[in-house]
Amino acid sequence: RKEVEQDPGPFNVPEGATVAFNCTYSNSASQSFFWYRQDCRKEPKLLMSVYSSGNEDGRFTAQLNRASQYISLLIRDSKLSDSATYLCVVFKAAGNKLTFGGGTRVLVKP
Amino acid sequence: NAGVTQTPKFRILKIGQSMTLQCAQDMNHNYMYWYRQDPGMGLKLIYYSVGAGITDKGEVPNGYNVSRSTTEDFPLRLELAAPSQTSVYFCASSLTGPDTQYFGPGTRLTVL
Question: Which residues of chain B neighbour A32 with C-beta distances below 8 Å?
Answer without folding.
Answer: 98
